Amino acid sequence: MSKKIELLNPGAVLTDVDRTLLNNNRQLSEKNQEAIRNYLNECRQNPQFPRLALCTARHPAALINTVLPIFAELVPESVHVVCDGAMLIDAKGKVIWQEAIDPSLVKQICRDVESLGGSFAFGNGEVFYCGNAFLEERLEGNEPIEFLPSITIKDEESWTTTLIIVNHLNEAVEEYLRGLKDKLSLHLQKILSTFNHQYYYNLTLDNVSKAKGLRKWAEYYHLNAENIVMIGDSENDIEAMEVGIGVAVANAKPAVKEVARLVLEQSNDDCAVACFLQEILKTMAKP
Q1: What is the pTM for the complete model shown?
Q2: What pLDDT shows up at residue 5?
Q3: Which residues of 96-122 are buried (b: 16+ CB within 10 A; e: fewer)?
Q4: Running DSSP on this structure, what letter comes out for residue 101?
Q5: Which numeric CATH code is attached to 103-205?
């Protein structure tokens, strides 16, 4: 693979999280942890080394106790693309830039969805506020994420978010969301959950995408977006892969593999990201 990576000549590496960096148990394997540590330590010693960061649909509240701690320990100033491209944060969760939905609209959507039999969640700061059905389901999962019922929200500002998750879908909820999309120019993305294997929607402002997030990230670091590797597996990675250099893990969807410039032999369960980073280390070590 080293020869292929030499040909890619990456200026930086962004990786998706779910089904790419995390295994099928939604965990960061020891091998991936070690590879990230080794890679970040090399970056600290050599400023010319391609940067490494996350590019994920997850909100910071779903990262601060899972993947971000390694970055916070070794490169706390590093910047990451989150919320499907709607936000840039540093490794400690501080917001650098965001495309936020109006708080009053967030409140209305969440209440409407729940009245139709659906449920919702959205991140604000280090917590997720949830509808009742979402909360009951997630509390059973023992995830290292703080989930709170939306009834605990005391001020309007706490309804501020960049992405609303809508699940427990039914026909009425889906019809309502389609109407919102047409009326308010919101972006809807239907995704299969790695938690309960049911479909849910990510709802963001219409101009939000991982591709936009990648460009913002490149702009922040004064890099050429076309030289940034994007490692991914799902449809919401495709636009970013087309902007930069697409790399697909072995378990990626067929449509993702079609646009990728390189398809890895390893899947997320085989620590594909670790293998890719190790190959970059080998390539950069060559005289």
Answers
A1: 0.94
A2: 66
A3: eebbbbebeebeebbeebbebebbbbb
A4: B
A5: 3.30.1240.10
Output the furthest CA–CA distance in the chain (Å, rounded).
64
The one-letter amino acid at 265: E
- With beta carbons less than 8 A apart as the criterion, state whether 269 and 24 touch: yes
Instruction: Give the residue, 102 or 1, on which the prediction is more confident.
Output: 102
Token pair listed for 233: 């597996």
Q: If 0-12 CB within 10 Å is exposed, 13-18 middle and 19+ buried, where does residue 19 land?
A: buried
Q: Supply the DSSP string of 256-283, one letter for each residue.
A: HHHH-SEE-SS-GGGTHHHHHHHHHHHH
Mean pLDDT on 266-287: 91
Provide the 10 A C-beta neighbour count for residue 17: 24
* CATH code reported for the domain at 2-97+209-285: 3.40.50.1000
